[in-house]
């Protein structure tokens, strides 16, 4: 275990066991945990964040390879339509830039096409797009009953297009049958295409309809560092091993921390396992599992003029599902004389992934099947990241189970936030907002409780006043 530090100061020798309770104890220092810390400080409240790792940030961190920076979670951005976008950008002050969301998909038969492809059918031959639209219209005229993500996709975009593009991609991403997946999560995701856009995009090239922000200088860690400055004390190297909601304390790093309000952004399945009183809330059906990813951050020799920002690969002949041309996606990460590329692969939840070095050879072979990547220079260096808790699996019946767990935690006064705590496939900006909202809700509930009149004493027939009535 790394030495425990509080905002950079070694705290491994501090004696806090049995001390005064912190008003807001926050578990996890990803975007949700930092959002909670920021909100507590804005309200003038005492807070402490406990982080199991050796630095804060969660997926909003960066690593360096030969002077090239790569974000820990590929394609971490701040989207313009997020309600708290202005708040996040305020931490960057004037060090941010707006970019159009212009992503691509790669199909061997056609090359790079617009993503999502259903919004850019004009990139396909006329006969192909006519077939897609005719099949889509027929499907919408006689929709199937929606019981899974697969049903939802077919009703929305037709069976032909699903079998050609959407099913292969989504199965490559999620690594489980789409018939086993819920669809509700997709209703709130940013990438949505309505029928008017499908028809318009089949006739003409549509411009990007979304914008994202990124630091003008630095990586996503630039934002994280600014958030850390405003989120109160953080102790790293503090993995939580026990939560006692009755005694109102947690044990982390072998030490006890008392609290008044507890906010958790750590993975919900882990929170259930370590919380006293939740022993009967086990997950026998395996509804709370995670999709892990392996990210290859590659640095190639030379300046290469490449097309695309984030490029999606639905075809099964490619082992990866997404390749990010880092310098195009985030110009601040461009480096002279170097071409940084980030490659993302979903890991089979049943295990059996090949060794990273062996898989790197396959990644390089598959990259060079794409004409523009075949011209890349020599690979100068690389770093492989294994992200165990990348995406909460959106299985059928999972959401009702999660809602029940949250209701039980709420009875203990424990609030969950973020992708881990809510078991919600949300972006970082949404996770930040959830962390802030958890603090606001806790304070509102405390105020309401303080203002409520004292309950009348219970009637006891043994008291003298009762006997004399």
TrEMBL record:
Residue ranges of the region described as Disordered: 445-469
InterPro entries for this protein: FAD/NAD-bd_sf
Annotated protein name in UniProt: FAD-binding protein
Organism from which the protein derives: Actinomadura harenae
Cellular component aspect of the GO annotation: cytosol
Signal peptide region: none
One Pfam family it belongs to: NAD_binding_8
One Gene Ontology MF term: flavin adenine dinucleotide binding
Cited PANTHER family: UDP-GALACTOPYRANOSE MUTASE (PTHR21197)
Gene3D superfamilies listed in its UniProt record: FAD/NAD(P)-binding domain
